[in-house]
């Protein structure tokens, strides 16, 4: 169960996140479940090439339902997923202006 | 360790001027926390400058990167009391507060000097404005094209005879960048005083004041000689023909600045293979060259037009007078002196995108700090608000009513 306000890390890359809004999913990164920051990673695991599109620092990611919100606090090559699909970026909307 | 390591700055500012001060402070080692509107952020994020529209999945808002690199971002809607309280918590731990918000807005939001000094009496409070904090127009906003370039006298000073209209600003946010560094300098002085006496000041910088500063010679001359500005001699009748700019055979330009011209005239002409000009009595002394300036400049026009730039740079390097090529900004970014001094650096924004940024032009012990990207909107809200003592439930409540991002 993902705890909001808790930080997690990828077991197979440098990605770190904070869970903003939880959902009933198992958060993955790079194809494997994440662990709490400070917990040990399983050293036998490796980055799954089908989940290697990267996580960008400062971006918020969500699942298909839009319930989950996870904020990347440290970037990494692994892609975030919910166990069945990769997460997508929640976009901010800048005001248009020109000079 | 930068000169301002350990200094915390809260920036509540938009566009170019005050944010560029934040970039300088970040380059100098300060932690700069940029407070933005939680929905759309700093409007600079969405600016399309000179019709250069960012597109594609890795679109780079190069203006926002230029003006907010190296900072953290917190999204707060200050009209919400909970979000305003979060700002006050951040400010209570800060050394410096930067803002370009107008006096009326600051009063309405309750974030003016007295409001913030109530939670932090040691806060250095910096106000960037268009027209200064005093006078009848102190409540008016300004942009650099209006307050700095036009009202500030620079457009007038840059207009050449025959121009149909005054020239544009030499670049986007040109005046903002000058005034921003003046504000950063003010912060450094105010922090120094605070260290020594404990007193924290209000620092004011305006675009209009910055413009007047750089036209100080014109203003002095206008007061002594009943003139609008110092007379600027044009190319054809430069009174010192070797302090002038010339066109080469390949339509490039070389600027000569040989102030003590008697030292440099004959050697330069000899080097260029023109003994006739070196010994021509009309051009033999500075006074003679001034008397015959039109003819002298015309002779130099013809001379410079005979060779391409590459030949002139090789030739001029062999004499002692000061000269320079008129370069494009792109050429500046790869100029060997610029590279050797680290004035322009590469900024890696994402693994796939990078752009060039200009280092703050004040170095300490010859160091240039490596640049880091501008933050995503609200990237640091959760982390900084937790650190400021908010509980997670408070954070979620603020999010649920759209008060923070």
From TrEMBL, chain A:
<protein>
    <submittedName>
        <fullName>Uncharacterized protein</fullName>
    </submittedName>
</protein>
UniProtKB/TrEMBL annotation, chain B:
<dbReference type="InterPro" id="IPR044855">
    <property type="entry name" value="CoA-Trfase_III_dom3_sf"/>
</dbReference>
<dbReference type="InterPro" id="IPR023606">
    <property type="entry name" value="CoA-Trfase_III_dom_1_sf"/>
</dbReference>
<dbReference type="InterPro" id="IPR003673">
    <property type="entry name" value="CoA-Trfase_fam_III"/>
</dbReference>
<keyword id="KW-0808">Transferase</keyword>
<dbReference type="Pfam" id="PF02515">
    <property type="entry name" value="CoA_transf_3"/>
</dbReference>
<dbReference type="GO" id="GO:0016740">
    <property type="term" value="F:transferase activity"/>
</dbReference>
<protein>
    <submittedName>
        <fullName>CoA transferase</fullName>
    </submittedName>
</protein>
<dbReference type="InterPro" id="IPR050509">
    <property type="entry name" value="CoA-transferase_III"/>
</dbReference>
């Amino acid at each position: 169960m993902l705890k909001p306000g808790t930080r997690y890390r990828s077991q197979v890359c440098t990605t770190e996140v904070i869970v903003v809004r939880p959902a009933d999913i198992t958060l993955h990164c790079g194809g494997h479940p994440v662990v709490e920051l400070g917990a040990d990673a399983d050293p036998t695991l490796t980055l799954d090439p089908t989940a290697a599109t990267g996580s960008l620092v400062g971006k918020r990611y969500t699942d298909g339902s839009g319930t989950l919100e996870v904020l990347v606090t440290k970037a990494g090559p692994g892609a975030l997923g919910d166990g069945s699909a990769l997460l997508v970026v929640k976009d901010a909307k800048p005001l248009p202006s020109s000079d | 360790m930068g000169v301002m390591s350990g200094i915390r700055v809260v920036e509540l500012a938009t566009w170019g001027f005050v944010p560029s001060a934040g970039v300088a402070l970040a380059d100098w080692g300060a932690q700069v926390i940029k407070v933005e509107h939680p929905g759309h952020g700093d409007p600079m994020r969405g600016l399309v400058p000179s019709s250069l529209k960012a597109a594609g999945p890795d679109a780079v808002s190069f203006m926002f990167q230029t003006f907010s690199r190296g900072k953290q971002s917190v999204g707060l809607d200050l009209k919400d009391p909970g979000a305003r309280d979060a700002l006050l918590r951040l400010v209570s731990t800060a050394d410096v507060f930067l803002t370009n918000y107008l006096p009326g807005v600051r009063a309405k939001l309750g974030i003016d000097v007295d409001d913030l000094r109530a939670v932090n009496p040691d806060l250095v409070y910096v106000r960037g404005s268009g027209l200064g904090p005093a006078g009848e127009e102190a409540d008016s906003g300004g942009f650099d094209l209006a307050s700095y370039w036009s009202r500030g006298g620079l457009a007038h000073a840059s207009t050449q005879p025959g121009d149909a209209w005054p020239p544009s600003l030499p670049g986007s946010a040109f005046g903002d960048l000058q005034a921003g560094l003046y504000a950063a300098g003010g912060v450094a002085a105010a922090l120094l005083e605070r260290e020594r006496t404990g007193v924290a000041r209000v620092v004011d910088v305006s675009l209009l004041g910055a413009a007047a500063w750089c036209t100080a010679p014109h203003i002095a001359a206008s007061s002594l000689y009943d003139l609008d500005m110092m007379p600027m001699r044009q190319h054809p009748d430069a009174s010192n023909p070797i302090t002038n700019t010339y066109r080469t055979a390949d339509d490039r330009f070389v600027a000569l600045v040989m102030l003590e011209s008697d030292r440099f005239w004959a050697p330069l002409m000899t080097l260029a293979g023109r003994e006739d000009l070196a010994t021509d009595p009309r051009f033999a002394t500075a006074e003679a060259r001034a008397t015959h300036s039109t003819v002298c400049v015309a002779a130099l026009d013809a001379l410079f037009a005979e060779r391409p730039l590459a030949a002139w740079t090789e030739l001029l390097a062999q004499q002692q007078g000061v000269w320079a090529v008129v370069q494009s900004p792109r050429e500046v970014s790869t100029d060997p002196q610029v590279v050797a001094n680290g004035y322009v650096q590469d900024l890696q924004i994402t693994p796939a995108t990078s752009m060039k940024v200009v280092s703050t032009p004040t170095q300490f012990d010859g160091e240039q700090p490596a640049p880091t990207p501008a933050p995503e909107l609200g990237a640091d809200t959760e982390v900084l608000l937790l650190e400021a003592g908010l509980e997670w439930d408070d954070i979620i409540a603020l999010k649920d009513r759209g008060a923070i991002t």
